[in-house]
């Protein structure tokens, strides 16, 4: 029974994936690609977009299978995403803003005939107020629907929306019959299709959409939930990519019908900065211009199609942002955040408000959706490419060079923008390829350094066989050993682990000669105190403003040991958030056999009234080097 349900569940998730990916970038840019390059441009754009979406699901399926359990992908994401948290957030903010801007600028503004009339000051103020109310309407609807769903249930809400969209698509196809343009050669190839600028668009689209889903919180949240439900991620994304492809083709073909029909009017095309032409709203203008001659349900159905497509993206963004912000607030290491209520930090509403203000500004200064798009084809490429490399390429786990990544991203934006406004294809291509080349160099340079280090070690080992060099090597080794960081007698650090070694004696055993079970906890406790003594040397019970208490302690016994056995207890800081710190410990014998392991959770209370505190800043500073 379960095996029969899984493909159906994959289809349900595929529908949600398609709708969540149908944001302003794909929805309205499919019309622009048809306007610029005809059906050739539309099919190229839709195929590359859908292929990138499917490859994300296919690759995350591979990642999820590296470990066992339904939580494997979630565990991987928490560790993998940590250096990219700001990139994830900015990517989501821009996606939400772009979508709100697109629906307002290309649907609502034309419908209300707000095409910059020659009004006086009062009329212009009225225009701004009305525009603000429209933006507020869109944001309110998105937040309201987003609050009604969680990731476990959103697929059912999208199933209803998808059913409505299917009915609308059938209605428009039967009523308008746009597929007749397939037989017209002029609908397939326009003048710009034969020019280099075609590749100036296609190569950045190829790069942007192949790496783009890897920074989309909506897609990661879906992949994680799909894996938790024991459903194939790759199958779900196959359905999602196929449905998404068909939706883009439908919208683009509808635009091609308008552009190639006798009713097409040039005034529907807008002129932007740099004298560039934009046709995002030609279908909207077509429906509005001929609403009296057409049946009323045709324009109404089309407007509802756009509204549902945008709403399914904005509610997904709300759910994904809430999940992301909540998880990061829990794991926050910044004591400053303790002054801000957690409900505000973890809420997507402030982010949506910011998106609303950016939308107002963008509409007033007459921006276009491409101006937002440039960041996905240039700035975010480096971060996404490095993220993919850290998933699949060994030796790419070095620290993220934030300043360099930001610099290369900004440089690529400038290069791409110059190429776009001057319509120079090589500059547009260079702006997209440059971040990928930098990441490839970064990964290759690290790998080259590893190889060089290994070869250097081989050379040193071979040279050590020369008597003179052997003696020199021994002297050098003794000097290095003399500099080993010895914390106290029998205690030292091994990477991030604090290690305390000693010999078990008769006092540690029970009546049959084995070490008494309670001694393991005492050994761990002593090692913890020695670790605290090292990292917090100035801690004084008489003057301290906080105490460190043990909230929980657990230990798993694996192998027993006896007296006169040399024991090594290792302890390190495993993780911490605003309130709790978790220490991990391992106990070994002299042969390296694991005797036991476990963890403990610490809390921090005020020394005066024992009130629970956030982790004190001095403790955070002390723990940071050993995480």
What does this molecule look like?
This protein has 627 residues and is of the alpha+beta class. The chain folds into two domains: 30-371, no CATH class; 486-626, Thiol Ester Dehydrase, Chain A. The protein is 63% helix and 10% strand. It is built from 21 helices and ten strands. The chain has helices spanning 2-20, 24-64, 72-80, 85-111, 121-148, 154-176, 185-188, 197-211, 217-228, 233-260, 282-289, 297-330, 342-345, 349-364, 369-377, 379-392, 402-422, 425-463, 467-482, 517-535, 617-623, and strands at residues 270-271, 277-278, 486-488, 491-494, 497-503, 546-557, 566-576, 581-588, 594-606, 612-613. A hairpin with a 2-residue loop joins strand 3 and strand 4 (491-494). The longest helix is centred in the N-terminal third of the chain and has 41 residues, at 24-64. The relative contact order is 0.11.
Concise structural overview:
With 627 residues, the protein is an alpha+beta fold. Helices cover 63% and strands 10% of the residues.
Number of DSSP E strands: 10
* Helical proportion, percent range: 55-70%
Report on the biggest sheet: 8 strands, antiparallel
Tell me, rounded to a whole number, the average pLDDT. Answer: 84
Please tell me how large the radius of gyration is. Answer: 30 Å
Low-confidence stretches: 1-5, 447-466, 471-488
Anisotropy-based shape: elongated
Instruction: Tell me the distance between the termini.
Output: 46 Å
* Class based on secondary structure composition and strand pairing: alpha+beta
Q: How many domains comprise the coordinates?
A: 2
Assess the beta-strand content as a share of residues: 5-15%
Number of helices: 21
